[in-house]
Amino acid sequence: MHDDLPPDLSRLRTLETYLEVSLNRVRERIAMLERKKLEQQQSEARRPPTPDWVLEHGIGIGAPPMEVHVGGCYAAGDRIRALTREQALAALTDGVDACTHCRPDTALGLL
Fold first, then answer.
1. pLDDT on residue 2
2. CA gap 87, 108 in Å, rounded
3. Which residues make Cβ contacts (< 8 Å) with residue 96, sequence separation at least 6?
4. Which of 2, 11, 12, 108 has its CA 20 to 30 A from that of 45?
5. What pLDDT is recorded for position 60?
6. Is beta strand 65-70 parallel, antiparallel or unpaired with respect to 97-98?
7. Is the predicted pLDDT of residue 39 greater than 70, yes or no?
8. With contact defined as beta carbons under 8 Å apart, do 88 and 68 qualify?
9. Starting from the edge strand earliest in sequence, which strands make up the sheet with 80-83, in order?
């Protein structure tokens, strides 16, 4: 027998109950974290791919386009819509500014 355990049966039973409760709490936390991880993986799998090019619009209805960005640019705001390569080229040649951070004009070969 181990010396670090209580010598009597009642205290051993109490310790056993405590350990069972603790083990159940740990298992519940593990299961919760596994579910959360699975949900996150499923969410990422369903997320649409990042577009190659995006157009950022100004604030308000009918606001003119502000900038063209490479898809995923950190400087793009929330008011964006996806563009094809041809649409991005057209927007840039029509005078819409190119983002100075991601340089879509360079990526599209305009410079």
1. 57
2. 11
3. 55, 65, 66, 67, 68
4. 108
5. 87
6. parallel
7. yes
8. yes
9. 80-83, 53-57, 65-70, 97-98
